[in-house]
């Protein structure tokens, strides 16, 4: 069974650092991009960034560039999302998801969707 | 402000048909297929429709999707109480080189 298992809930103070994880199993982890998504309390889904564990190629959403760091350790099939200095506004649920790529002959190009999601990691930042 | 535009809410009585719209632009829906996700409170999103109109295994055929130009829609036929959830449309975006989301539509079964 394809699964993404995320690390547990975190409670931190403003200014602290944090690294949360997302471990894949049941598939070849290095061959699929991992997407990170934020959901603030009562709000919608926001794309943060994406990483290819095979070579750690990473793209960040402009909204999150410089605010977080996404990394991967392919030896343990795990991707990470980290902050160097948390703010109260980082309080949210964070999801990782696997991106499934396929070739669409009707448009002669690749198409993408996120097929498997982790259960999410709640991060609470409060003084 | 989400890149894709969805109505914030939709509702219907059991058995009715409900439709949710999703509007984008040439750099996202105009180029890439649209995917739909269902999310219950406190749960992770679940893939409902991919490639505009394909259902993953296990998704009831009451759910259907379509796309035309830079817009897409999700239809729920024969609405059931268990369909009460939030629904998000998602498409890849050439400019951002990542996915863009709709703001989500809360479906209420009256």
Please summarize what this structure is.
Chain A has 127 residues and is mainly beta.
Overview of this protein structure:
The complex is a heterodimer of chains A (127) and B (110). Chain A has 127 residues and is an all-beta fold. Chain A has strands at 3-6, 10-12, 18-25, 34-39, 45-52, 57-60, 69-73, 78-83, 92-104, 109-117, 121-125. In chain A, the strands form two sheets. In chain A, strands 2, 4, 5, 6, 9, 10 and 11 form a seven-stranded mixed beta sheet that branches. Chain A has a four-stranded antiparallel beta sheet with strand order 1-3-8-7, with no helix packed on it. Chain B has 110 residues and is mainly beta. In chain B, strand 3 and strand 4 (46-49) form a beta hairpin. In chain B, 42% of the residues are buried. Chain A binds chain B through residues 35, 44-47, 49-50, 59, 61-62, 95, 97, 100, 102, 104, 107, 109, 111-115, 117-120, and chain B through 2, 31-33, 35, 37, 43-47, 50-51, 56, 88, 90, 92, 96-104.
Percentage of residues assigned to helices of chain B: under 10%
**Beta-strand content of chain A:** over 45%
Average pLDDT of chain A, rounded to a whole number, is: 97
How is the main sheet of chain B built? 6 strands, mixed
Order of helices and strands of chain A, N to C? EEEEEEEEEEE
* Through-space gap between termini of chain A: 40 Å
The CA-CA distance between the termini of chain B, in Å, is 28 Å
Oligomeric organization of the protein chains: heterodimer
Number of strands of chain B: 9
The parts of chain B where pLDDT drops under 50 for at least 5 residues are none
Please provide the count of β strands of chain A: 11
